[in-house]
Amino acid sequence: MTTVADPKAPRPPRAKPSRLTTRGNTELYGWVFMRASGVILLVLIFGHLFVNLVAGEGVKAIDFGFVAGKWASPFWQVWDLLMLWLAMIHGTNGVRTIVNDYAERPGTRLVLKSLLYLAFVITVVLGTLVIFTFDPCPSGSPADLLPSFCTAS
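Predicted structure:
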């Protein structure tokens, strides 16, 4: 017969880490970053949703020409870049915290965090490249699909 420990019983105290093994204020800075980036992300995301869905003709107006017109402006490139970077750092930090809390084995924790950081780097690099190398006027495209500022060639 298997016995289950009383869930209301107090847990044995954990051994306190020595002063030499603490990581300083890294977790505090991560906690503060999560709060600040969350507030900034709310502004960025709701601004993005307002411009893309509420202002103008709504979701039916979002097409290649709409995105090309937005990304022709450095303002919107920086806006979307900030949104990408903050969302990815915010989400990666949150998942890192979850991995640290729930992955019990150090090897499992290392593999999960390595995959997490790899996914972060790939997404941020590709997203940044797309934002800054996007050509709003690709040659050989039908004129009706190009934004108004492109000259048909």
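Summary: The chain has one domain: 26-145.
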